[in-house]
Design brief:
It is built from five helices and no strands. The protein is mostly helical. It has a domain of 106 residues: DksA, coiled-coil domain (Four Helix Bundle (Hemerythrin (Met), subunit A), Up-down Bundle).
Length: 163
């Protein structure tokens, strides 16, 4: 049951404002991190050994550091997209609604991961490829996914008992 003055996710305007502020703060933090990483790693000169001959190990270390930083930047940019999507859901009034089951996401989950688009069960199923981000699944898909998930846990318990 949705109370008066709540969005589709059952959140009050004060809660939505708090989540928006949290998302904006996290977005700014990530932007600063990405810009700092880019500046420190991608725009700096290679290892500063100007008075020493070039060594291949130094080049390898530099390449590894750059590759590692690029992976971190890519991960941060994906998180930025998730945050932007969450801010868009706030504007549309659908923030806090699971995109899998179209039900309310528990507030505790939103507090832990304010950019989440799924309840815990649907997030687990999405990670396993049970459905794509843009499609909702029907109840039978959800129940089948839970059975498979529980079956995997049961198999693990059985395997542990056999060993």
């Amino acid at each position: 049951m949705i109370k008066k003055n709540t969005n589709k996710g059952g959140l009050t305007p004060a809660e939505i404002k708090s989540f928006r502020e949290s998302l904006l703060e996290k977005r700014n933090e990530i932007l600063i991190n990405v810009l700092t990483m880019e500046d420190e790693t991608l725009h700096r000169a290679r290892t500063d050994l100007s008075n020493m001959p070039f060594h291949m190990a130094d080049a390898g270390s530099d390449n590894f550091e750059i590759d590692n930083t690029l992976c971190l930047i890519d991960s941060e940019r994906k998180l930025l997209l998730e945050i932007e999507d969450a801010l868009e859901r706030i504007e549309q009034g659908t923030y806090g609604v699971c995109e899998g089951k179209n039900e309310q996401i528990p507030k505790a989950r939103l507090e832990a991961i304010p950019w989440t688009r799924y309840c815990l069960n649907c997030a687990s199923l999405a990670e396993k490829g049970a459905f794509t981000r843009q499609e909702q699944f029907d109840k039978s898909d959800y129940e089948q996914g839970l059975e498979e998930q529980n079956g995997n846990f049961n198999n693990t318990d059985e395997e542990q008992n056999n060993n």
